[in-house]
Model the fold of this input.
Amino acid sequence: MTVRVGVVGTGMIGRDHVLRLSNVLAGAEVVAVTDVDPVNAAAAVADLPRAVVHPDGQALVEAPDVDAVIVASWGPTHEEYVLACLAAGKPVFCEKPLATSQEACRRILDAEVAVGHRLVQVGFMRRYDPAYRAMKDVVTSGAIGAPLLVHSRHRNPSVPSHYVREMAITDSAVHDFDIVRWLLDEDFVSASVLAPRRSRHGTDLQDPLLIILRTDSGVLVDVETSANSRYGYDVGGEVVGEDGTVALADTNPVVVRREGGFAGAVPAGWRERFVRAYDVELQAWVDALAAGLGATGPSSWDGYAAAVASDAAVQALRTGETVEFRLGPAPALYTDESGR
Ligand code: NAP
Done:
């Protein structure tokens, strides 16, 4: 069975997903797109003559020939389109963030629980990265003993002009929050934020930031976000356990030795670093739908958990205080098949 997919939002990642589904992956066809800019939407499917450009997300979701939807528009629009998919009973892959506040995520959770089965997958693609998967295997095997500390770094070479200081948390660190929660299989209970001297490259941003989280068993997690590292897109992670450590290795295919030194390359951006993860993630989504399984990967609950941590970290950034929080119990819908 070919899954007929509609894509809402044909910006950077929406277009990537159109190309991925059309040229790289198997089992799906992009049959519909929409964007606030219809010219942009039409350009995204210029090579797909059967794809229809819809006037808005609601029309696309309701189109009878659309089996499943990818929401890749601007974050503040996610809630509206995910809720529309749930109302139509259609599976939806929503790029992160699931929504821009924990209250909005909660409304999505409640709507999905009312449907009674999972329809939502959130685009936390790091869970599909081979290096992070190998890291999780080591942690869960017990080989390094009980985790005590996690170091996570998330450095962007530069950021767009609309990037404001909170986006270091809501747009960047939200990936780190999710991957650490998944690696440890634990929830966070507090967040604080430290700000060092500002980088001269950060203009009026408070950049970089150090976000400190504590999990419910007491693991301390530090997340460094840099919005203007300049030298490349540099993601790193290390779990320090009682008996050893596990860290992501550099992903260079080659190292060059010359003139008394050696060098490898740092990825230029997120596309390059996580290209394989995006492919595996979306293929898994398509395969699950084709098999009639509904959503199987990162869930609305995971999106909600990341939003709760994000909201707390933003509050900590604004107040300078340590913010304590509790997630509460997950609805039964998410305890068996949350993909954790
Ligand atoms: P982008 O290039 O700005 O694309 C967003 C697109 O959605 C733009 O074309 C925008 O149009 C359009 N849009 C805005 N409101 C809309 C609406 N009401 N209906 C339909 N389309 C609408 O941003 P992006 O980088 O692709 O990011 C899109 C989403 O993906 C964000 O939530 C982002 O956080 C997420 N993302 C995730 C990853 C990841 O690693 N998983 C990586 C990149 C992005 P205008 O430009 O005219 O506003």
Observations:
- The mean pLDDT is 95.
- The pocket of NAP is lined by residues 8-14, 34-37, 40, 57, 72-75, 77, 95-96, 123, 125, 171, 270 (CB under 6 Å).
- Residues 270-290 form the longest helix (21 residues).
